[in-house]
Each structure stands twice: as C-alpha cells, then as structure tokens.
Amino acid sequence: MVVTAYDPGSESCGWRRGRLLFWRKFVAEGPRQGERYTGRTAANTRPKPVRPGLVSWDTVRHPWMAPVRLILFWNLLPRPGTIAADTRVYPFGTRIYVPGWGWGVVEDRGSAIQGPAHIDLFFPSRRKALAWGSQRLTVKVVAP
Hints:
Elements: E1 2-6, H1 10-13, E2 15-17, E3 25-27, H2 57-61, H3 65-71, E4 81-85, E5 95-98, E6 102-108, E7 118-122, H4 126-132, E8 134-136, E9 140-142
Parallel strand pairs: 1-7, 4-6
Antiparallel strand pairs: 1-8, 2-3, 4-7, 5-6, 5-9
C-alpha cells in the first residue's frame, strides 16, 4: 500500500488567506471555492497527529519526552492519528496500523485517494510530512 503524508498547510489542504480579512482562510479551489475554510475533516473532526503513550518505542528513542508525558498526564495514553482514505473501501472509523507511525483512524477523504492501495497520514507540520514522504508499506486494517 502507498502511504503518503499530508499537513495542515495551505499547499496540502488547498486554502488561501483572505485579502482584506487576512486572518480568515478560504477554500481556494474545487466546488467549495470561496467558502470559509474550517480545517475540519470529512467526518467533521479536527485532524490529529498520532501520539505515542508513555510506554512506547518513541519514549525509548526520545527519552527526554518521558518527564513531559508524566507531567502532562493526558499524554500517558496513546492517541490514534487521522488517516485520509477512500471511504468506499475504508469507511469512517476503520482503524489502521502503519509501521513506523502507529495506529490511526480513517476520519478524512482526499480527492486524489482512489482505491484500496493508497492512504494519507496526518502530520502536524510540513517538515514532518516531507520527512515521511511517500512509502510503500504493509499495513494492518481493522474494520470498525
């Protein structure tokens, strides 16, 4: 399966800032062009990056994060990230495990995602999304 990355930036999500209302974001292209951009997914949720729990390989690779996860108690438990997929193949709520990224839930659909062989993973920054790039991986799919 081809696993690619997307971020909340304007190039990935297709929004532009308004000219007079520069603090507002508007959809730049497609059938919703000109409407206000809310940043929500197709399932009407905010996209979330995957968050490993306290007991994870991420804590072993980045030991300086252990005290932060202990102090901020909501970081103790892992949180699945947002995945964009073809919802005709993977309906909303489908859990997918991606090696090197973690567990995610299908909460979005993309216009370029067609068929069962392509998913997009949400990353919080453009830098992290570009570092992930496009990879061909074997994933584990759990139906909702």
